[in-house]
Amino acid sequence: MASSERDTHENRTVIQEFILVGFSYLAEMQSLVFLLFLATYIVTLLGNFLIILLIKLSPSLHTPMYFFLVNLSFLDICFTTSVVPQMLVHLLVKHKSISIAGCAAQLYAYAIVGVTECCLLASMAYDRYVAICHPLHYTTIMSGRKCVSLAAASWITSISVQLIQITWIFTMPFCGSNLIDHFFCDFAPLAKLACADTSKNEILIMVVTVLFIMGPFLLIILSYINIMCTIFKLPSAEGRRKAFSTCSSHLMV
């Protein structure tokens, strides 16, 4: 009995790193995949930096909609950078390892930025709703302070929720296999390696998904239902065209 407990304890403390095996099956194609993802990553960075630069240098674009667009571009840079550089390295090396601390840091960055982006997209939809449905009060409602408050609330909410969720995951003991069947550290693959009951954590993940992914999505849908209803009530085709054009940036995002 004592020997069994010692063995269990050793199994639970042996994991010092994880091995990401998501791209291992590609074998000799990994170099080609590396070039493809590197090119995509560079284009993503340049595109988002260009958006930020153009908006900052154009006084006519210093409006709430483009304020949110700058924030979204910054988030997109952070989002891709939290995953892609480490993935590119692993495409070139044989030993695709990541420390537990590195895995936690990657998951924190990925999850926090992801939830913040969802909340900001909802804020952007609210901005378009106010601009089209309440145009006379737009400058009053969507003041600079209101925009900063919405962006800050998105960050604070995301950080608070994900710190609790991810810290809970990494307080669990990991034992047995250290192979993560993915190309980066994510919730579901990590939960499979835990030596404890993860049912409560899975419920928390589901709740966070519903609240901070489906929630913003539903707010966006409701905003655009109201926007469409307002636009179709406009008497002229030119007025409807201009109203639709003001939503183009958000719809593309």
UniProtKB/TrEMBL annotation:
- Record-level Gene Ontology MF annotations: G protein-coupled receptor activity; olfactory receptor activity
Pfam families, per database record: 7tm_4
Question: What is any one of the record's Gene Ontology cellular component terms?
Answer: plasma membrane
Superkingdom, natural source = Eukaryota
Q: Which UniProt keywords apply?
A: Cell membrane, G-protein coupled receptor, Membrane, Olfaction, Receptor, Sensory transduction, Transducer, Transmembrane, Transmembrane helix
Organism, by scientific name, is Alligator sinensis (Chinese alligator)
State which residue ranges cross the membrane: 32-54, 66-87, 107-126, 147-170, 203-232
Quote the CDD domains the UniProt record gives: 7tmA_OR10A-like (cd15225)
Q: Where in the cell is it found?
A: Cell membrane
Entry-linked PROSITE patterns: G_PROTEIN_RECEP_F1_1, G_PROTEIN_RECEP_F1_2
Q: Is Transmembrane helix tagged as a keyword?
A: yes
Using the record for this protein, list the coiled-coil segments as residue ranges, or answer none. none
The G-protein coupled receptors family 1 profile domain, residue ranges = 47-253
Protein name (Swiss-Prot/TrEMBL): Olfactory receptor
Family statement drawn from the similarity comment of this UniProt entry: Belongs to the G-protein coupled receptor 1 family.
Keyword Cell membrane belongs to the record: yes
Q: How does it sit in the membrane?
A: Multi-pass membrane protein
